[in-house]
Design a protein that fits this description.
heterodimer; A: 323 residues; mainly alpha; globular; B: 207 residues; alpha/beta; Glycerol-3-phosphate (1)-acyltransferase; seven-stranded mixed beta sheet; 15% strand
Chain lengths: 323, 207
């Protein structure tokens, strides 16, 4: 009995175990959603439950897409994150006012910088990966816009495009870049497991902040930026995600204490990412970046918590764990 | 058959590039009037985006009205305009010659027959800035000729950012196409009033 269990464990590995855990979680969530749908009485409660169920349904699809990407190995994950970056940048640039003379620079951002950044992830070329957007992208975008001859709001325009590429492409690409990290001594898992762990903790923190916010959220943290981000939701959500992430330490190279610290970093940075992206939405006078994902808004609304968390998590592991 | 496939493929590409989905209120049309979809014009994508957003049963009957000075030039443009999109080509009036304008209206009325819908861009040309230019009077003269026509306003957002005039390569900004409720020429309505009403109906779709 003991041997067969151990054999099974070796077969599915930590990554498979995490994925099965997520499936179990989704089953429970769908069950709760179905129960709530029957019990909701008032109109506002019904609307909340409908939104909750739309979100859960979208989570099934997102988990399936993510699962397929992971199963197909490195290439699948890189392609999936490239598409996420591309769609996110599409939403970002649509929302920010660009001028006619920015056309060429925008074309470079979408069709040169984004694909090259992800080719570098796939080729595991860390040196160029880490400087492409901040150095060469910065040079290319600002120079091309200067060459267009349009000086009106020049700094604002170049900053906007550079910002979009930084947030949507450069920062997000650090999530699949976990795949390029070399073997970690004494750790049987791989970059894919760490990628799954990062996404799981960051997204779980989002979901639980939403759930705790609905249950116990009263005082908004930054009412002018996002009225739905409350202290109750923030504390409850991040603590839940940290607790789950710490309990999953066995899937990572971390000790339980380090796992808790890593989860603290992921959840705090995830929160700040969401807050910063919300500030941009408020400035532009919209609620969501898009309508692509049912109940969630756009792609950028869903991955905003990775924008700061991914690069920092990547560098923490690279600094402390990769020899 | 091949012509239809090419047309569908181009419409698919336009939709892919622009990301445009039909938005706003659905057009509710009583009976089966002939329709004139009039839209703001800032990009070569405009016609195809509108065309691909139409319900299939209307799409097959809908012809664009295009300037022959541009679309009649060169074999590829001519092939696209005549065979693929079945465009009604008119000469864009440069001056204010009455007989010239009258000839264009004749052509459009003839091209519409008693079945076709058309897509027109009343500004007469693509706007460089995306700001709505003054309307030409063609729509009014067409309405005088065929008072039963239903003029349906269409507003295209962001097309000039996706593929501006003078650019060849598109940028994947998300565009939208909004349809509004149709208007008809009212008895005794003069040119200024009708064109102003049409313009307002279009601008009301701008968010």
């Amino acid at each position: 009995m003991d041997i067969s269990l151990k054999g099974m464990w070796l077969q599915i590995g930590p990554l498979g175990a995490l994925f099965l855990g997520v499936l179990a979680l989704l089953f429970i969530a769908s069950f709760i959603g179905a129960v709530l749908e029957r019990t909701a009485k008032s109109d506002s409660a019904k609307a909340t439950v409908a939104n909750l169920n739309a979100r859960i349904k979208a989570w099934w699809i997102m988990a399936a897409v993510f699962g397929v990407a992971m199963v197909t190995g490195g290439v699948g994950s890189v392609v999936m994150f490239f598409l996420l970056s591309f769609l996110a940048m599409r939403e970002f640039m649509t929302l920010t006012p660009t001028a006619r003379s920015d056309h060429a620079a925008l074309f470079w951002a979408f069709f040169l910088l984004a694909p090259i950044q992800y080719l570098l992830v796939w080729a595991k070329w860390y040196g160029l990966f880490s400087v492409l957007v901040p150095v060469y992208g910065f040079v290319a975008i600002t120079s091309r816009m200067a060459l267009s001859g349009d000086t009106e709001r020049f700094l604002e325009r170049t900053a906007t495009v550079q910002w979009g590429v930084m947030a949507c492409v450069y920062c997000v690409s650090h999530a699949p870049a976990l795949l390029m990290l070399g073997p970690i001594p004494g750790y049987s898992g791989n970059g894919a497991t760490l990628l799954f762990y990062l996404v799981l903790v960051a997204q779980l923190s989002d979901v639980m902040q939403y759930v705790w916010g609905k249950l116990a959220g009263k005082r908004p943290i930054a009412p002018t930026v996002s009225p739905s981000k409350t202290w109750g939701g923030f504390v409850g959500g991040t603590l839940t995600a940290i607790a789950v992430g710490t309990a999953l330490y066995w899937a990572t190279p971390f000790t339980p204490v380090v796992a808790a610290a890593m989860c603290l970093a992921i959840t705090m940075l995830g929160f700040m990412g969401g807050l910063v992206m919300s500030a941009i939405k408020r400035d532009r006078g919209v609620k969501d970046y898009g309508t692509m994902i049912q109940g969630h808004g756009g792609v950028l609304d869903r991955i905003d918590s990775l924008i700061f968390a991914a690069p920092v998590f990547f560098h923490l592991i690279r600094f402390f764990y990769v020899p | 058959m091949i012509v239809r496939l090419i047309a569908r493929f181009l419409a698919f590409i336009a939709r892919l590039i622009s990301g445009a989905r039909p938005g706003g209120s659905m057009i509710i049309v009583k009976g089966d009037p002939q329709m004139v979809f009039f839209a703001n014009h800032s990009s070569h994508l405009d016609f195809m985006v509108i065309w691909s957003a139409l319900p299939p049963q209307w799409r097959a009957r809908t012809r664009p009205v295009a300037g022959s000075d541009y679309w009649g030039k060169g074999p590829i443009r001519r092939f696209l305009a005549r065979r693929i999109f079945k465009a009604i080509l008119i000469e864009r009036s440069t001056g204010s010659s009455v007989s010239h304008a009258q000839e264009s209206i004749d052509r459009i009325a003839e091209g519409m027959g008693d079945r076709s819908h058309i897509i027109v861009f009343p500004e007469g040309t693509r706007s460089m800035t995306g700001e709505l230019l003054p309307f030409k009077s063609g729509m009014y003269h067409l309405a005088l000729r065929k008072p039963e026509l239903l003029f349906v306003p269409v507003y295209l957002a962001n097309m000039n950012r996706i593929l501006p005039k003078g650019e060849v390569l598109p940028v994947p900004i998300v565009g939208t196409v909004q349809f509004g409720a149709g208007i008809q020429l009212q008895a005794g309505e003069d040119k200024q009033a009708f064109l102003a009403r049409a313009r307002e109906a279009m601008l009301a779709l701008r968010r």
